[in-house]
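Subject line: Sequence and fold of a protein, written as structure tokens
Enclosed: The protein record, placed directly beneath this head.
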Amino acid sequence: YKTGILMGLGLYAAGALMFVPAARVGSYYPFLVAYFILTCGLSFLETSSNPFILGLGTGETATRRLNFAQSFNPIGSLCGMWVAMNFIQARMNPLSTAERASLPEAEFEAVKQADLSVIAGPYAAIGLVLVAVFILILLFVKVPGAKQSPRRENALGPTVGRLWHNREYRSGVFAQFFYVGAQITCWTFIIQYGTRVFMGEGIDEQTAEIMSQRLNIIAMVCFCLTRFVSTWLMKYFKPARMLAAFAAAGLLLVLGVIFIGGRPGLWCLVGVSVFMSLMFPTIYGLALGDVGEDKEIGSAGLIMAILGGSVLPPLQAMIIDRPQVAGLPGVNASFVVPLVCFAVVLRYGLRSCRAKA
């Protein structure tokens, strides 16, 4: 586990620091490479850290431990929003795309380089902090607790085979794919939904977008706080039952988003974040609950399930682009995508309840 965590930190730090030379080059692909390396580091970190947390104590409290650890993730997301708003967006040149295009070439290059330097600065700071954390863990931290699985000859193929035939695990990967899709669609398209609602009240587009972004931040705060609350509630309720209950509540709120509309529908969309809070770590913990020594490879499969956050939002965007669908505004009708996602998670939660009854 320590090796995986250090590899994750190293790649994360390298990707963040590569934003500095990418800014000097000033073209798209160096930034893409830097971002790819950074996200590879995050994948290594999550794949190594989650099964390590699950193995630090008894199986009965494993999912609760993981929920507690992951409660700090949205705090990082909120800090990222604050950094982006105050150290990137607020310091970039306010010229519009059209105004930039009309600048003389030399002046355009000067503005571009200034903006790229603004973008690179926070990433460089993050990279340096990660290097310091890497050194501290490498030299001074002895990873306790969880035991590494014994190595097997040609272990990958048999491990994947066992995982594939494990119904609980296979269903968990499927549910995780749809959960992440629901999360990204709800958080991505709250801006479009809110902007349409506020503009319908006579508010100009720019102000409507700002108001919608504030609601997005409120949704993230609700997500963060509820994850701590749900971790505490797991002391009294089984994780599978809580997952099913939260999925049912999220499904009902999305129905409100689709059919109620207006400000009440917008607040339903904000409320969805409350019930998404426990889903990722709870699905993760339930899916890995009975895979035994296959946790490391199983963890990688669950991390790969975040592909749902890339596949499903474009489907929702295709619906949003239509003025009306089945008599509903396209923006409202598009939330049928997260509706289906929550139905899948609800089914998985109910199945897990029966399996662990």
Q: What stands out?
A: The chain has 18 helices and two strands. The mean pLDDT is 88. The first strand starts at residue 324 and ends at 325.
